[in-house]
Design a protein that fits this description.
Elements (H helix, E strand, L loop, with lengths): L1 E13 L4 E2 L2 E2 L4 H8 L3 E5 L18 E3 L14 E5 L7 E3 L7 E6 L1 H4 L4 E8 L6 H5 L4 H12 L3 E8 L43 H13 L1 E3 L14 E3 L2 E3 L2 E6 L6 E6 L12 E12 L16 H14 L5
Parallel strand pairs: 1-4, 9-10
Antiparallel strand pairs: 1-16, 2-3, 4-6, 5-6, 7-8, 8-9, 10-14, 11-14, 12-13, 15-16
Helix pairs in contact: 4-5
Length: 323
């Protein structure tokens, strides 16, 4: 069967460990159903080994980034798992990654009907006060920015994940940008005038200012709080000390008209203190899907003499000269 797919559903979710108080989230139907609605999704902070990662028949060959166990507890922390729907897997390529904190995917423009290739980075940026982050000898956002410089030469960019950055309603672009009065580089593109982004989180932190700086320098825009489906900037994280917006989708400014919606899903405290976030991106791709309904086939065939006669009669009608 062949059909045309017009939209891609992409999501990311910090699940805060696949096990919670002895409860395996991967075995819960509601948890799994939330993921099966997507075409591409990333789970963050999975805390799992390769032998207990989530397995889904329609999402074969996922990629798992797993941190070494911590000492002396021997526990797993962090971890990313990225799943691609089987029917679109041929159009997606996983790129080399330098750390287990983020990973890049390349979506082929010809396969998906884009004007340019699309590079998606799924990332988990740990809190600045975490022991893991304090031991790092690199800055995750700076590494991602270096990759953006490279990949933006041949395509558009998306960033998605838990960035542990609080940006309030601060501007993520240059306001009233213009090249009319000051000579600029020939390849300089002025930022567009965008609707004011909203957020229910009024706080901003150091990581948030770094993220805003990345948006401005790389012409990326935050989907939260300015895209249909989340025009108020809903909270994405709920903890005892308060709620915040720390999970984001960012995209190249030119891509914004191609998003049908951005959605912050309902808070499900049994699964995580973070909400799943998702977006829908326009595409135009032909999907070739085998639809063999084997359930309708009999378990075995019963042969008798009457069937033998019918069989020979059919053969004679088709190839009488050879019978």
């Amino acid at each position: 069967m062949i059909y045309t797919k017009k939209n891609l559903k992409i999501s990311t979710w910090n699940i805060n460990g696949y096990i919670s108080k002895g409860f395996n989230k991967f075995e819960d139907d509601i948890f799994v159903d939330n993921l099966l609605q997507q075409d591409i999704f990333c789970l963050q902070e999975t805390h799992c080994d390769l032998d207990n990662c989530l397995e889904l028949p329609n999402f074969q060959r996922p990629v798992h980034l797993i941190r070494p166990r911590t000492k002396p507890s021997g526990k797993r922390h962090g971890g990313l798992s990225v799943y691609i729907l089987n029917t679109i897997r041929l159009g997606v390529k996983f790129l080399e990654h330098a750390t287990n904190d983020f990973i890049w995917l390349k979506l082929d423009r010809t396969f998906f009907g884009f004007q340019e290739d699309l590079y998606i980075c799924f990332v988990y940026n740990p809190p600045e006060n975490s022991s893991y982050y304090r031991k790092l000898n690199y800055n995750i956002l700076e590494m991602i920015e270096n990759d953006i410089v490279k990949y933006s030469q041949s395509g558009k960019i998306m960033i998605a994940g838990d960035l542990n950055a609080r940006t309030a309603c601060e501007i993520d672009h240059i306001q009233m940008d213009s090249d009319k009065h000051i000579p600029l580089f020939d390849n300089y593109k002025c930022d567009s005038s965008l609707i004011q982004r909203k957020s229910k989180d009024s706080s901003i932190n150091t990581r948030g200012r770094q993220l805003l700086s990345l948006c401005i320098s790389s012409s990326l825009r935050i989907l939260n709080g300015r895209t249909m489906g989340d025009l108020m900037g809903a909270h994405t994280c709920f903890q005892p000390l308060g709620s915040s917006v720390v999970d984001y989708f960012l995209a190249s400014e030119e891509l914004l008209p191609n998003f049908t919606y951005f959605h912050t899903h309902n808070f499900l405290p049994d699964f995580s203190d973070h909400c799943q976030i998702s977006c829908m991106l326009k595409c135009n791709t032909k999907i070739y899907e085998r639809n063999l309904n084997l359930a309708l086939m009999p378990d075995k065939y019963i042969w008798d003499d009457s069937i033998k006669i019918k069989f020979m009669t059919k053969i004679q009608l088709i190839m009488p000269q050879k019978i």
